[in-house]
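Protocol step 4 of 6: structure prediction from sequence.
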Amino acid sequence: MVTKKIYLIRHGQTDYNLKGVVQGSGIDAPLNQNGFDQAKAFFEAYKHIPFEKVFYTGLQRTKQSVQGFLDMGIPHEGVPDLNEISWGKYEGVPMTPDENQYYLHMLERWSSGDLEYAIEGGESPIIVAKRLSKGIKHIVAQPEKLILICMHGRAMRVLLSVLLGYDLRFMDVFRHRNLGLYVLNQNERGIFRLEKYNCGEHFNSPK
């Protein structure tokens, strides 16, 4: 028996995404036109789902991505604990070959089990997992059973690992795209199971 159903999406595209510039929690970038188009495509495909509440982070790109549902009058709430990981001094920095090499090195550290490792001034996966656990606990404790959550790419990977019981070393098995959808079902024992994985079929829907 399903006690809670979560539709989990990543925000739409921003110019930072388009240009390959690191965003993180310290960059409150808005959606670009393509991002708004992606949000509209998702809304058109899922506006028939009777969401009881919509959640987004403390950054505007997530709220903008679900604005269509908010305009329908669905109750909603911002949860800053679901914010993207902080990339510290690399936020707002273009991804040069040197920066990309450092990023890959960091991912290797994480996948090898060094989950306390963080970019200078940023957060580690362990810190993010604790923060996200607090945020999702707040959400799951609410009475609504069918909910929509809009988040960020790296934070989604960490959250999916937490909810599905994956070791954080393997969080990169969870792919993401702008406005990609995961659907999770929680049973009466509180265990989550995945129904949809990084789904983008709404982009192929007839206009």
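Step 5 (inspection) to follow. The radius of gyration is 17 Å.
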